Amino acid sequence: xxxxxxxxxxxxxxxxxxxxxxxxxxxxxxxxxxxxxxxxxxxxxxxxxxxxxxxxxxxxxxxxxxxxxxxxxxxxxxxxxxxxxxxxxxxxxxxxxxxxxx
Length: 102
Description:
By secondary structure, this protein is an alpha+beta fold. Helices cover about 35% and strands about 25% of the residues.
């Protein structure tokens, strides 16, 4: 049997791996894992979500991610997830130079 790693960097990798195995559309970013003085874990991260996702769907995706992380890391007593929209590859724009010069 393989034992899990306990170094913080390994815990961060486990968080990223959990997302990949679930095939979620969310992508954890800026993941921080802190071990509290009582031995429990505090997870903090951004969940990047597609910009076209509704707020209700985004909330479910974040809740699902939190549930999966708590199952993966039962020592996590606190999980803080801040949702962010993924940037589109191409940003639409228009030239407003004339409007600002008028």
